[in-house]
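re: the backbone from monday

yeah here it is again, tokenized this time
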């Protein structure tokens, strides 16, 4: 890349290296959010609506896992997917699939904990109505998840934010083989250390733009949902 190319020129011209990194970042982060939501939303709702022995301990652990260290997750997934690990036969270490798994493990507790709080608040509001209609446990979970779908956007947004900004786990399980598994956060650090500031700054601009657009879209969706519900 020519030395006189600015970060803004890279963004506006659609530099192939920059676009490849952005594309991979979005695929990995969004896939991790989907997997985290598939696991976290039903689990969080079930914890909110079910009374069982040890429930308070589960809630405490769930809240604690929101701050799960990325390096710990990365090392754990690395050991599981390495050749000597129980999942080594999958052969996906140092691939985007490994990064998706690591990020899903990181963000699933965040989505589950925020979902639990949202569903528990809705249960307080709709307990009498659902009990009067004799709605079963699964029906309650499905009903409250649907009713709180706009509020749950906040949980998904928090998960996406954690995934998009994550570095430790991704670089452990994804590596940086020929730049193939390089995502925005790791690329910014690597390009800065190599002195390639235009590409690093360009990636930073794109990352900020994505965060702003996602936040604006989530806010608009929630506002539309509140108006529709009202």
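seq for it, each position gets an aa:
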């Amino acid at each position: 890349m020519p030395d006189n190319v600015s970060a803004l020129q890279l963004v506006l011209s659609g530099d192939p290296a920059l676009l490849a990194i952005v594309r991979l970042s979005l695929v990995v982060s969004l896939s991790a959010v989907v997997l985290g939501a598939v696991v976290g939303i039903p689990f969080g709702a079930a914890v909110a609506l079910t009374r069982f022995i040890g429930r308070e301990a589960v809630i405490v652990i769930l809240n604690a896992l929101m701050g799960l260290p990325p390096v710990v997750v990365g090392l754990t997934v690395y050991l599981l997917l390495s050749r000597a690990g129980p999942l080594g036969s999958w052969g996906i270490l140092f691939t985007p699939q490994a990064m998706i798994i690591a990020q899903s493990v990181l963000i699933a507790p965040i989505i589950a904990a925020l979902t639990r709080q949202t569903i528990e608040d809705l249960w307080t509001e709709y307990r009498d109505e659902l009990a009067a209609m004799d709605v079963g446990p699964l029906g309650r979970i499905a009903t409250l998840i649907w009713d709180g779908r706009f509020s749950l956007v906040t949980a998904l947004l928090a998960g996406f934010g954690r995934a998009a900004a994550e570095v430790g786990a991704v670089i452990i399980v994804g590596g940086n083989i020929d730049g193939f598994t390089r995502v925005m956060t790791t690329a910014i650090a690597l390009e800065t250390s190599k002195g390639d500031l235009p590409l690093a700054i360009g990636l930073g601009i794109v990352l900020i733009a994505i965060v702003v657009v996602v936040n604006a879209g989530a806010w608009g969706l929630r506002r539309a949902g509140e108006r529709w519900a009202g």
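The CA atoms of residues 51 and 137 lie 11 Å apart. The mean pLDDT is 83.
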